[in-house]
Amino acid sequence: MPELPEVEVVRRGLESWVAGRTVAAAEVLHPRAVRRNVGDLPAQLKDRTLASAERRGKYLWLPLRNGDQEEAEEALIAHLGMSGQLLVVDPLSPVEKHLRVRMGFTDGGLELRFVDQRTFGHLLVAPMAAGRGRPVPEPIAHIAADPLEDAFDDEEFAVRLRLRRTGIKRALLDQSLISGVGNIYADEALWRARLHWARPTETLTRPKIAELLAAVRAVMTEALGQGGTSFDSLYVNVNGESGYFDRSLAVYGRRDEPCRRCGTPIRREAFMNRSSYSCPKCQPRPRNARP
DNA sequence: AGTCGGCCCTGCGAGC
DNA sequence: TGCTCGCAGGGCCGAC
Fold it and tell me: What pTM does this model have?
């Protein structure tokens, strides 16, 4: 699960290594990697220039230009899923075991490879959505702005959050409310804000929501500064290197280890068929808990 | 319309 | 040694 910081690390790599280059040929080695694409991806990419590298939440996209066309009408979208990697490598380097898509460029330089062990990630070409505001591709128009974007509206988030009738962690993971937050950073932000994951959203006060948003932004910014989290060595930048924020995690993956604030052993609870880590003392379970 | 559970997929470590 | 099982989990979709 690369989350916002890991995806941003990849975006920066694409911006410096791939933006401005023109695709010579692309090859799809596994159909599942393009399951959401309509049409033939190699044909859609051939001779097109990857204008820049953009991101919203956990989604990446590269606007596609034809020749000297000014406005991109389509984009190549990438989602890394749980184990996807976008690597910039020598075209002659050995093929990775889980290589799904590769593309070479007209300049003959380093090629772009999409490698994905668990195949939850995917690539597709899609039109840009019509409308005001920041241009985004149609398939991700329903995704909310992420908390590091200028377009993110704290006030609107607070209003919509309090209208929900669910637990705070479910809400944080809902990409149509706030994007970019996954299981790791949700747990870390909730610990920082001293909130239990099952706290009903409508009971959160405005100051507490502001505190939580600040915690989300702080943990993501810190992780970005360390190149992201590399929990199982699958999250790497375009050069295959891992970040080291996992050393700074306060609760995620730290079952029975002491809370960095009070020393109480961290607990792990089942949540939505996955895990939630929290401190039993700093984040007591509310009486009106919502799963 | 909002909420929630099931499903997709592979590798790895624990247990037998 | 070699099998099975549980776990890791983001996003989409159907059910209510």
Answer: 0.94
